[in-house]
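Lay summary

Proteins are chains of building blocks that fold into shapes. Our project writes down both the chain and a compact code for its shape. Here are two examples, one after the other.
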Amino acid sequence: MHIGNRIWSWYSAAIDTDVASTRLKLASMLYCKGDLQMAADVLNDVERRYDNTVQAICGCSRMDPLNTKPRKVFTEVLNEGDTDVLLANKVAYLVRFLRQ
């Protein structure tokens, strides 16, 4: 199956919106396409980016449901600086994978 330029441009435009969500969607699409090595590379990249300063946030605007208090490190980073950089590097939005 061939992935069109339009789809690649959508992923490229959204890839740095947060630490994981677009990358996980890209890995899922690559897996479904049968490109297992590239999917594994994307997943390894997500794992490398996801450190103890990343805060998971669900779609209902709550923090990680398993940890309702923001992590201290995340809060310190939040107080330091640029919101765009913070969102791209320190926030992971919830991704729901459906069978469909």
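And here is the second example, written the same way.
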Amino acid sequence: MKIKKVLICGSLALAVMLAAAGCGGSANGENDASNTVGTDLTHLGTQQNETSPGTESNVIFGASELLDDDFSFSQGLDENGRWQGVAALDYVEMFNHGAFTIPASVHYVSDEEIQILIDDMLLSHAVPTQITDRPVAYGDEINIDFVGSANGVEFEGGSTMGMGTYVTIGVTQFIDDFLYQLIGHMPGTVVNVEVTFPEQYHEASLQGVEALFVTPINYIAGDPIIPEFTDAFVEEHMSDFDGIETANDLIAYIQEFLQHNAVMEYLYEYLMTQVAVTSIPEPLFNYFKQQMLQEYVDEAMSWGMDLDTMLDALGYDSVEALVEENREGIEIDARFSLVLQAVAEDAGITVTAQDVADFFLENFGSEDFSMFEEFYGLPWLKQFIRNEKVLEYIRENAVFA
């Protein structure tokens, strides 16, 4: 069983993450779309609008001269994904990356930690006791269906489609006094709920409209029935994951997952803060400064405002003040990138265009990475994947104390 990596490149990421099963799920089956242990391929770093970095998005930046008008993610990188004109080994005091020591306190995984994840997973697959022998009362969590109509015509979005939904009277927000009309009725009965949509309702065609919701009460949700952690449970819920067939298989998988996360977190922290760097080349600091500013520009655009207006709302009196506030983070990003390149230089780790295609084939199911190349540029993608290789190289060769 191979654990996928979480990779960080500056403050943007193209991440391949292993997510814990169903953590935070409801015992009554709510929010259970991901109630399995699995590999979740997550892309963090896309913009919140359709404008590519370095193009029209900078038009609304304002009068400040700090933002590079043609910033792009591959800016300052050569065709191999290395910083142009920068020999990272000249700035980084090299450490024993080929036999990096991981303290026992970092990689040790206790039975209690494993049990917490198992308990969360079991809870996410719990089902409620179905109470049907008493009427609905205020504060009850109940399972209902409903079909809504206005003037005898069903309207879009006004039905549960017979799938049932959980609501809690006094907590869940429905229009008018919808849920309060269910109080006193027995499970198994159908209640004709009459409501009036608010005048300011988001759907204009329903504003102020009187509606009827035919509402079967399925049951009152009681205490959860939590399944046992058995081979049968694993077989039922983990059948899509290769190599996980028994409870012991899943325990080993969780242990590896927790250990991997702890080791990588320790490694990130070490590379970012503990490796000696004599100085940060100005092009790197400027790059990560521009990247940070671009993120703020994109955020401002997503709110329909210019950067100066958003910064004023956030309490910054200038772009310069924003940069100064974020100086430490910018320097950490630059240090991290410089250290990763230095290790790659020292260990001879490189990336070709085929390596990029192989990465996307493995993680996305296709060698076509043209969409990502258009957004980030091939040099950035090469740097990103090279950084993954560096991190994996250090982890695979680490000495576990």
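What can we say about the second shape? Residues 127-225 form a domain with the Chitinase A; domain 3 fold (CATH 3.10.50.40).
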